[in-house]
Amino acid sequence: VDEHIDALMRDGAARAGTFSLGGGLPASELFPRRALAASFLRVIREPGASALQYGWPEGRPGLRAWVAERLRRRGAAVAAEEVILTSGAQQALAIAAEVAFAAGGRIGCDAESYPAALALFRARGLTPTVERTGVVGFYAMPALSNPRGHGLGEDERRALLARARAAGVPIVEDDAYAELRFDGRSPRPLLAEARALVFHVGTFSKTICPGLRVGWLVAPPDFRQRALVAKHTSDLEANSLAQALLEDFLAHADYDALLDRARRFYAPRARRLAEALRRALPAWRFTLPEGGFTIWVETDREGDDAALLEAAIRQGVSVDPGRLFRVDQRASPPALRLSFASEPGPRLAEGVERLARAWAG
Ligand SMILES: Cc1ncc(COP(=O)(O)O)c(C=O)c1O
Predict the structure, then answer these.
(1) Residue 107's pLDDT is what?
(2) Fewest beta carbons less than 10 Å away: which of 35, 108, 115, 208?
(3) pLDDT tens-place string over residues 182-200
């Protein structure tokens, strides 16, 4: 990340009184604190103390079985043995990038994509591109994308699979927001269509909480052993305590009810942010997200997104500058990713008014 932008974002996050339309963090009100605390006590008291002990690199069998069962319900025939638990989706992406993509190649991505994946690819000498040919693989968020909050249509899905098959290259499927679509429909993962090509990545960060740092990777059978070696040599295994806690939590919780609650919490906030934008910044373009935490907005004149971020922070609102998400890293015309997840409705509306003042200069 650009050091100047990083410093601005940290400054915005640290200032008292700043309204947060940046960050894209889940709402802390939804963290199931009481139930997690009860699970913590149960796993700590367990006589074998497995939650405090080393485990195998692939992770706890019970939690792997839970992940496999959820994927099977969405149409992908996955066995527990095929799931590798990771330190968040981010580590799953890092392992997939290491074993899936030929060194030095170009990776086909959406024109706007998840910044930490783009940064990961670049750090590994891979080049994100919007081209669809001459690539060593694809990175996609078919169920729901970050930052736009859109899923792939049926035609786009088919086209992506056809291109990957024709070129014989892998697809890294980032499924981080799949269960946070407002329509409650978690689509059939690409994994269900092309086992030999798809590296499927998921996480508990968006639906339960990111602090536990547990995600997963389902690699194609031919790559599983290499993925496991990459996992083992990176950190031996994902945090035992967090895995045990989640396994216990999920055994006691009604996860579907928790997801319903989260969707009912976020959907009105998305509408509220959209209304505020239409009112205060009618010339800016955006489409309503289908889920997730954010709206991608494009401004209507040339400028610099870092300057806009600076002006926004002076007005008391933080935002995420668009260049972080753009594969071509363009600063102009400025675009922003705005989060509706972290602030209640009135603060979203006031935040947008502050942003409009920053834009007016
Ligand atoms: C699309 C996407 N993938 C992966 C991640 C990383 O998630 P985790 O916290 O599980 O590492 C994020 C987090 O922002 C994300 O937005």
Answers:
(1) 98
(2) 35
(3) 999 999 999 999 999 999 9
CB 341 within 8 A of CB 18: no
**What is each CA distance from 320 to 25, 144, 256, 269, 280, in whole angstroms?**
12, 19, 31, 18, 18
Between CA 146 and CA 90 the distance in angstroms is: 14
CA 147 and chain centroid, separation: 9
Among 84, 90, 217, residue to substitute to test ligand 1 (most atoms within 8 Å of Cβ): 90
Q: Does residue 146 have its Cβ closer than 6 Å to ligand 1?
A: yes
Q: Is the CB of 315 under 6 A from ligand 1?
A: no
Distance 66 CA to ligand 1 centre (A): 20
Q: Which atom of ligand 1 is nearest to the CA of 87?
A: 11
The SS3 call for residue 107 is: strand
pLDDT tens digits, 348-358: 999 999 999 99
Residue nearest to atom 2 of ligand 1 (CA): 176
Contact 341, 27 (CB under 8 A): yes
Residue 90 in contact with ligand 1 by CB distance below 6 A = yes
CA of 133 to the centre of ligand 1 (A): 26
State the distance from the centre of ligand 1 to the C-alpha of 88, rounded, in angstroms: 7
Q: Is the CB of 173 under 6 A from ligand 1?
A: no
Q: How far is the CA of 302 from the centre of ligand 1 (A)?
A: 30
pLDDT at 14: 87
Q: What is the mean pLDDT of residues 212-236?
A: 98
Q: How far is 261 from 259, CA to CA, in rounded Å?
A: 5
* pLDDT tens profile 299-326: 999 999 999 999 999 999 999 999 999 9
- How many angstroms separate the Cα of 250 from the Cα of each of 36, 53, 99, 213, 238? 10, 20, 30, 15, 17
Per-residue pLDDT averaged across 44-49, rounded?
Answer: 96
The ligand 1 atom at the shortest distance from the C-alpha of residue 91 is 11
Q: What is the pLDDT of residues 75-101, one digit of tens each?
A: 999 999 999 999 999 999 999 999 999
Mean pLDDT of 130-134: 96
